[in-house]
Amino acid sequence: MKQIIFHHTGLPAEVLKLEEAAIPQPKAHEVLIKVTARNINPSDIMFVRGMYGITPRLPSSAGFEAVGIVEKTDEKNTIPVGTKVVFTAIGTWKEYVCVPAAMAIPVPPQMPDEIACQAFVNPLTAYAMVETSGLQAGDWLLITAGASAFGKLAIQFAKQKGIKVACTVRQDAQKDYLTEMGADLVINTETEKLQKVVMEKTGEGVHVVFDAVGGALGARALASLRPGGRMMVFGLLSLESIPLNSGLLIFKNLKVEGFWLTTWIESLSAEARQKAFKTVFSHLLGQSVKLDVAASYPLEQFKEALEAYEKGGRNGKILLVS
């Protein structure tokens, strides 16, 4: 089989290689999946660079999320052969992957691969963060990196609950796109002062911030919270930690907390987990929540895919397909 792996960490374009390997054989509790599509997420890039919360065991494949077809089932026949599943695993940029049967989530066969391969990480994270944020109809939510795949999903899930959404972008061209998607306020942080605009439009500030950027923008987002506000941090696109203002935290009684999808899923009961997936899949199939695709590339063209991923102003995911 073909696989994209790296023998040492570094910039993906420099360390990733396409190699041939034997098809893995599943253990008794695992299923063998023929992978059909994967999307490129920021976490994938950080993992290859050695900057993610999970340390790679080298050599390692890249990628955490994918869709595929079960070719061999586990000893209990938990998931029948031929079932389309989405899953997360360390190293999905290969043609075949073995995962525990409990970690493979069946999806409706009519769900296209380009949607299914994105149906786990970003949609479930957006759904989970909106559900656990405590936001009510009429409250304000600020999303940094609003034009990201997560940002667009969070806008849609929030609007379904009547939550007012502000978000940040770095290009004016993205303003109309996000406004049409439902954002009430879109701020270009390259030309506008975030805190000033937020205070003018919301009065006291926003109730909750979803921050994927960190660094200076994360600090400005924190300052945009109203007294008693809450920041939920789930990414670090700037690769810089937020410089926290202790005075703000104390005198405005602000809360800053981390969010990681894996931890949230593990906290759920089996019933609650099934409900979460069913809800997200229903939204995606019914197109009440939409996912965008910018371009698809075969595994052999992963370098071209990485170049497309790095282009600014992109609206949609870059996929690696088999």
Automatic annotation (TrEMBL):
Claim: Nucleotide-binding is one of the keywords in the record: no
Enoyl reductase (ER) domain ranges (all copies): 10-320
InterPro entries reported in the protein's UniProt record: ADH-like_C (IPR013149), ADH-like_N (IPR013154), ER (IPR020843), GroES-like_sf (IPR011032), NAD(P)-bd_dom_sf (IPR036291)
GO molecular function: NADPH binding; oxidoreductase activity, acting on NAD(P)H
Keywords from the UniProt entry: NADP, Oxidoreductase
CDD domains, sorted: ETR_like
Pfam families per record: ADH_N (PF08240), ADH_zinc_N (PF00107)
Keyword Ribonucleoprotein: no
Gene3D superfamilies: Medium-chain alcohol dehydrogenases, catalytic domain, NAD(P)-binding Rossmann-like Domain
Source organism superkingdom: Bacteria
PANTHER family per the UniProt record, alphabetical: QUINONE OXIDOREDUCTASE PIG3-RELATED, ZN2+-BINDING DEHYDROGENASE
Protein name per its UniProtKB record: Alcohol dehydrogenase, zinc-binding domain protein
Organism: Mariniradius saccharolyticus AK6
